[in-house]
Amino acid sequence: MELVSKNSTPRFDLILRPGRWARDFVDELAVASPARLAIGSFIAVVAFFAVLLMLPASMRDPGSVPQTQHIANAVFVAVSAVCVTGLTPVVTETYWSDFGISVITAGIQVGGLGILTLASVLGMAVSRRLGVRQRLIAQQATSALNLGQVGTLLKAVVITIVTAESILAVLFFPRFLMRGETIGDAVWYSVFYSISSFNNAGFTIHPGGGAYFASDPWILSLIMIGVFVGALGFPVVLMVAINWNHPKKWDLHTKLTLTTTTAILAIGLLFLLIFESANPATLGDKNAGHTFVEILFMAVMPRSGGFSTMEIADMSQSSHLLMDLMMFIGGGSSSTAGGIKVTTVAVLILAAFAEARGLQDVHVFGRRLTSSTIKLSISVLLTGAIIVFIGTLAMLQISAEPLDRVLFEVISAFGTVGLSSGVSATVNEAGLYCLSVIMLIGRLGTITLAAALSMRDTARLYRYPEERPVVG
């Protein structure tokens, strides 16, 4: 007796055919252009979280704002959460319901892990191995140096996030209990701030934001540690974890990242201390110990943290300019931080010094930098500067805010930092959509965007005669 008719197989095949077409299309796109798949997937996930935030259940008081304004707020916050930025046009704890805040938290976690990294990890868990296609996707998501490193790097991504957030949550928990919170609230706050800090998101759910904890060095220190480690980048964390007691075995990327990060942090700390210690609107009337903790906190946050213990608008113009530069630089490559990345700046500075000394090659830590690395760093810098310039022009036309505040907000959006001069809270719907686009570009990265827009590499079979124009 036949249990399955002859006609059942074709019918079953017709049912599965659309899924197979979709799978084959994704596989071909992953091989042809992992960058385009990355951008498409990222936008799809942002749209998903935006739809969830548009639901009445996500608002604490549905109908309190016009529908068009709520849609703009939902899109903006969804982009900000998935891009782990932290900018928001509304007060998180009063505008969004518990469900809405849970959606934002999930968006932060997904954005920090990386959409394509998550997909690759799930694929590895199902098949017990990482195929070539998953490696291509993951390589684009994690900026791994070669396909052979992706499996190890993906494991490091998951282990780092789970371990770091768990440790932070455990350390947060007793402090929230000591502050008088219930056990349930203490657990929730610990989980939320561990996710928000390690992923450099900058979202807060307490009145006044980071200023709510300005007099609590324990919580400020944990947030700083989470932001700092999260902004180093997974390749650096992996290298340090494996060879923590053998710094000589660290690769060039790790050494450049740690050295440049330390230098930028020290410079930021010094100048912010000079600019703000006598400012009566921020730290002028506080004692030396309290001032140092807050300044150290504010020096770490422009790397992409986004938390703030003081009103940005009250800080001096000099501090604004310094933080503009720090936000534009950002954190480490393949990290939860944005910006043009510290290694890009390190390569450009080293190249400038080598040129000033008349050296043909650029050397650092016993290694020679390739010309392609230097050209790529220049491209990233120029692309980032152009994006900030165009974004600032657009926002100046949309809003009535002065250049200083608009430039600060645009760089914060591009660097996915989240520190705000107040523009996001006052700008109209067009401004919110404009900043959302800037956040998306900043999160996806200038290199990924350029790779997605490039149809193919063009190799010439000939070279023109060399001639050097007068420069400078």
How would you characterize this protein structure?
By secondary structure, this protein is an all-alpha fold. Helix content is 65%, strand content 1%. The chain is built from 20 helices and two strands. The chain has helices at residues 8-32, 34-54, 67-82, 92-95, 98-113, 115-127, 132-142, 150-178, 183-198, 217-230, 234-242, 252-276, 288-300, 317-329, 342-356, 371-398, 403-414, 423-426, 429-444, 446-453, and strands at 362-364, 367-369. It has a two-stranded antiparallel ribbon. A hairpin with a 2-residue loop joins strand 1 and strand 2 (367-369). The termini are far apart. Residues 1-9 and 124-128 have low confidence and may be disordered.
* N-end to C-end Cα span: 88 Å
Helix count, per DSSP? 20
Mind describing the biggest β-sheet? 2 strands, antiparallel
Helix/sheet category: mainly alpha
Beta-strand percentage?
under 5%
**Strand order of the main beta sheet, please?**
1-2
What does the overall shape look like? globular
**Number of strand segments:** 2
Give average pLDDT, whole number: 82
Low-confidence regions: 1-9, 124-128
Question: What's this model, at a glance?
Answer:
The protein has 472 residues and is an all-alpha fold. The protein contains 20 helices and two strands.
Helices and strands, with pairings:
Elements lengths: L7 H25 L1 H21 L12 H16 L9 H4 L2 H16 L1 H13 L4 H11 L7 H29 L4 H16 L18 H14 L3 H9 L9 H25 L11 H13 L16 H13 L12 H15 L5 E3 L2 E3 L1 H28 L4 H12 L8 H4 L2 H16 L1 H8 L19
Antiparallel strand pairs: 1-2
Helix pairs in contact: 1-2, 2-3, 2-5, 2-7, 2-20, 3-5, 3-19, 6-7, 7-8, 8-9, 8-10, 8-11, 9-10, 10-13, 11-12, 12-13, 12-14, 12-15, 14-17, 15-16, 16-17, 16-19, 17-19
